[in-house]
Specification:
globular; 2 domains; mainly alpha
Length: about 425
């Protein structure tokens, strides 16, 4: 028995090590929002806080475009070719050049946003500062460190960045007039530590940036296009709720919804954390047993989290909000079951289908989800005079159900359980 346990630890040593580093980041991520966002909501007021979130919802579209699915495709490619320095250099160079081009295109499109949106036009500085999220997405090489399964440097830098953000917010953001400091501080705390990460990448890892030939760039562009199509569908669906609430319902409602969405993300941290370490591992080792066991374990854990959330929703929200707790509690209880669905979507969808080269099913499942989302919005528009937050949450649950059901069917069909 002891021998079997020792063998299991040895087999999954790297996986457990990376899981440990990610656990440190995620635990800090659990605490940080609970400290910062209720404080910002109280100090800035719902309108200003909602305005910051609205700007983020617009810039997020650019972030998705700049990412272009490389968080999945580049991680997988690095994982497979990690021992071939020439190939790794080629991958890194191609990814940075493509993402750099997309960042320039995104920055140009920001001026079109100013023309189309009155809110953006009157808050240009806020949007320019929030564009630091695009800079961060362009420069961040987390996909490389995930691919080689060395997450210690990312963990250390991430903790320093988040701690600096926490301290700076409490030191400098004191009243409603300070709302522009939030994206400024966030941008500085995100991008400055990346200089250290990049120096590790090119000095300690002995990698260099070279301009690949056109056909090589096109190859990586095409390979990531499938991941991009899938990821853009998922993320646009998620982000569109925030955009619609801010545009059509009100910035005060958006402020409450954003806090609840962040709370759901906090509860989903174990799922996303395990997905990040499993993808490169399963891509390399083709271990379907660990995916099945992880999905069963985390789905059971998700059910427990949802149950506790239902019981203590009101008490939790009273700590976060000074008013509107009854409405927020209803929204939270409505939203909570999505945590269970996330487990099936992440492990069987993101990990298994991508690791076993079944990306076409991942794409189809995502497209079915998007169609469900669009029909849901049409239904809400036709049968309700105004958009309401509760209907948008129900619509989000429906698309996750559609995706999880489709993915599970394909997993069974391809004998990956």
């Amino acid at each position: 028995m002891l021998n079997r346990f020792t063998q299991s630890i040895t087999k999954y040593r790297i996986l457990l090590s990376n899981l440990g580093y990610l656990s440190i980041i995620k635990v800090f991520n659990l605490i940080l929002p609970l400290l910062i966002f209720p404080y910002l909501l109280r100090v800035l007021g719902k309108e200003n806080y909602g305005l910051i979130i609205f700007a983020e919802s617009i810039i997020t579209y650019f972030v998705i475009f700049i990412n272009y699915g490389f968080n999945l495709s580049a991680t997988k490619e690095i994982s497979i070719h990690r021992n071939d320095k020439k190939k790794v250099n080629e991958i890194i160079s191609s990814v940075y050049i493509i993402k750099g081009i997309f960042f320039i295109i995104s920055f140009c499109f920001l001026f079109i946003v100013f023309y189309l949106s009155d809110i953006a036009e009157t808050n240009k500085m806020l949007f320019f500062l929030t564009m630091s999220l695009g800079v961060y997405e362009f420069l961040n090489p987390v996909w490389y460190f995930q691919g080689i399964e060395k997450l210690k440097p990312i963990t250390i830098i991430s903790l320093i960045s988040k701690l600096a953000f926490l301290i700076a917010i409490f030191l400098f953001v004191k009243n409603q007039e300070d709302f522009l400091l939030v994206p400024l501080i966030n941008g500085l705390c995100l991008t400055t530590p990346l200089l250290v990460i990049l120096s590790i990448l090119y000095k300690k890892e002995n990698l260099s940036l070279k301009f690949p030939q056109k056909h090589i760039l096109l190859k990586y562009f095409k390979e990531s296009s499938l991941y991009f199509t899938s990821s853009i569908s998922i993320q646009i669906v998620t982000n569109t709720n925030r955009f619609l609430i801010g545009s059509l319902i009100g910035l005060d409602k958006l402020a409450i919804y954003d806090i609840l969405e962040k709370f759901i993300r906090i509860l989903s941290v174990p799922t996303s954390m395990l997905r990040q370490v499993l993808l490169p591992y399963v891509s390399l080792n083709k271990d379907k047993i660990i995916v099945r066991k992880t999905t069963i374990l985390m789905t059971t854990f998700g059910c427990l989290i949802v149950l506790l959330g239902f019981v203590f929703a009101t008490e939790i929200l009273e700590l976060l909000f000074e008013d509107n707790t009854k409405e927020a509690s209803f929204w939270l209880k409505l939203y909570l079951p999505i945590i269970i669905l996330f487990n099936i979507s992440n492990y069987y969808g993101v990990v298994s289908l991508n690791a076993f080269n079944l990306q076409k099913y991942f794409l189809k499942g995502t497209l079915y989800s998007v169609l469900t989302f669009c029909f849901g919005l049409l239904f809400i528009y036709l049968f309700n005079e105004f958009f309401e937050v509760k209907y948008l949450i129900i619509n989000s649950l429906l698309i996750e159900i559609v995706f999880a059901f489709y993915v599970y069917k394909k997993i069974i069909k391809n004998k990956l359980l």
